[in-house]
Amino acid sequence: VQLVESGGGLVQAGGSLRLSCAASGFTFGDYAIGWFRQAPGKEREGVSCSSSSEGSTYYADSVKGRFAFSTDNAKNTLYLQMNSLKPEDTAVYYCAAARGCQYDYEYWGQGTQVTVSS
Q: Would you state the pLDDT for residue 108?
């Protein structure tokens, strides 16, 4: 099982980025996929989670209305569209897979850096 993130970068406040998480070795429908972020000196924070088996997508209050989760099942890739970015969104973003959104995450990507300048 492998998860590979991409799409991070430097953007000005108010801008947008789309992160990708390419999965191999498993089928999306069998796992919930979560996005997490960790800023320097801060604990890791859950950003979003989507589970097709549970039929639910969750967002942290800090990103609700600005971030959107989508999937391309044909490519086994999922995306996190991030709009109206703020400097406090600056962090390393990770995607991870679990049996359900509230379960322990078994598989993690390597992370992609997002930097939002003011």
A: 96
User: 84 and 14 in contact (C-beta within 8 Å)?
Assistant: yes
Dihedral sign (CA 109, 63, 11, 88)? negative
The one-letter code for the residue type at 58 is Y
Q: What CA–CA distance (Å, rounded) separates 3 from 22? A: 6
* Beta strands per DSSP E along the chain: 2-6, 9-12, 17-24, 32-38, 45-51, 56-59, 67-72, 77-82, 91-98, 105-108, 112-117
Amino acid at site 3: L
List, for the chain, all residue ranges whose pLDDT scores fall below the cut of 70: none
pLDDT at 41: 94
